[in-house]
Amino acid sequence: MSKTFTLSDVSEHTSKKDLFIVIHDKVYNATSFVDEHPGGEEVLLDVGGQDATEAFEDVGHSDEARDVLNGLCVGNVEKKEGDDGPTRVTSGGATTTTNKPPRSAGDGGLSIGYYALILLGGTLAYVAFQFLADNTVKKL
Ligand code: HEM
Fold this sequence. Notes:
It is a single chain. The chain is of the alpha+beta class. 39% of the residues lie in helices and 19% in strands. The chain folds into two domains: 95 residues, Flavocytochrome B2, Chain A, domain 1; 31 residues. It contains five helices and seven strands. The longest helix is centred in the C-terminal third of the chain and has 28 residues. GO terms for molecular function: heme binding; metal ion binding. It is a single-pass membrane protein.
């Protein structure tokens, strides 16, 4: 189970009868699942032999899907010395590293401004409620 594969080992398993994919640095043998995949066999074959982390997460798979995934695990991806991070292979074949994310820099979570906005909204709602409650009591 804890076998270690290099990305080039994985890239040799791309056919429907022998299909490996990498998700979150783990290697999964998806061969037995190709025909059962609710999202179709095509998408799995497209990412065969590659890192499909992004594709898998983009779909927002359920916990059930993650359970199935666990059952297909055959090992880990070997990290070579000097690697700047896990290599991401998109279906187009381009490779990037996670050190310099190609997309937006603020992927980590909500910015502080966002929290301030939520706090301000909450305060305003509270004040408005107090004001209305006060007026209602005075009218009675
Ligand atoms: C071995 C890896 C994978 C497993 C075990 C898996 C499992 C599943 C499961 C159980 C579902 C049903 C819905 C759910 O429970 O979330 C599903 C749906 C889906 N999957 Fe995957 N999946 C895998 C990889 C992928 C990849 C790499 C892609 C895309 C490139 C993908 C695309 C989809 C799509 C589009 C659906 C939605 C189908 C629909 O609702 O019509 N899946 N997958």
